[in-house]
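Before relying on records like the one below, remember that each one covers exactly one chain. Contacts with other chains, cofactors or solvent are not represented anywhere in the record.
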Amino acid sequence: MAPSPTRLLHLPLLAPKPSPPRCLVSRRSRPRPAGDAARCGCATEAGGGGGGGGSVVVEDDLYELLQVLPRDLRDNLQNEPRKDQLLEVILDLGRRPEARFLGDSGGQYLRDSEISQQELEEAQRAVGEFGGDNRAGIEGTLHRISAIRSRKGMVVGLTCRVGRAVTGHVHMVRDLLNYKESILFLGRPGVGKTTVMREIARVLADEFQKRVVIVDTSNEIGGDGDIPHAAIGGARRMQVAQPSMQHRVMIEAVENHMPEVVIVDEIGTEAEAQACRSIAERGVMLIGTAHGEHLANIIKNPTLSDLIGGVETVTLGDEEARARRSQKSILERKAPPTFPFLIEMRERHYWVTHRTERSVDMLLHGKKPLVERVVGIDSKDLSSYSTATPAKELVLFIEKMK
């Protein structure tokens, strides 16, 4: 179904070079059972929005994920009108199974009886072995199954998360890719960071003709199995044996495989932050994600603050303090940021983009940061920011997604 028309307010200054023509192709990892189009989980929406033409294609391989579930739950979800919006299925021992959908704050029980130990064991056998991070996948798909264990190591709960390949929605940041500068995506779990990483990898590899390497710690970007999912296009994928080794594989990717772009999901340790800085200093474009909802969360996080340049305490002289009308001890950014751009993903269609260096400095000085780019929200939602004006050579881009 075609989406409603979008409203655009665009004050174009410092516009990037025109993007190359888009060629959107819906790919599938392997043939589906004949005569069952619903199992494919492939939906197309006309018009990509935001310029650039093309269409948005969503493929979720839902049929494969449903095979992990008990038969009655499988049949229930096959007939669910909102199955295209399915986010995850929760299977907890001794509790009723629950389905959660995009846009809903609560869940929906799938039956009145509780999940048994036998059902959990059968689901676990269908999934296979879990990694050191208690995550597993289904080969050839993008789904993620995460385990909850008891003290004795027994699986007592499963979170079966739907992984979707969304082709054609990268228009929300497409022009930023032309700047060839590193971008950090910030957002809480479930807001769609990994989906965006996957599509950016495809666009950079296939349309921008870049050498792209994905450091895929949990096989969420490229899918489970040794052959990566077709949704990442021509990008190459390096798997990580243990989550604690992610920073080593990041450096190995640069030293051994000559990438122009490195993509890494869920940066969360000091070693990974240092690896990001090392990669950026070698002239490699870096696309990464981290947990958090606002830029201020990263500034206050001592583990990840190096991503935005780090923070240090500076003591001012008496005259300087009087000139600034501030205390003598103040906080300052101590280095250039690893990621020149930072995007707050508040919701799936609610993004705020910062020029990191400028926004960090203004926050540390107690001012509202100037927003260069706002995507997917109305201007009334910008109370925490100051919008830029053409005289300051900034771009304000407000797109209302309906």
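The mean pLDDT is 79.
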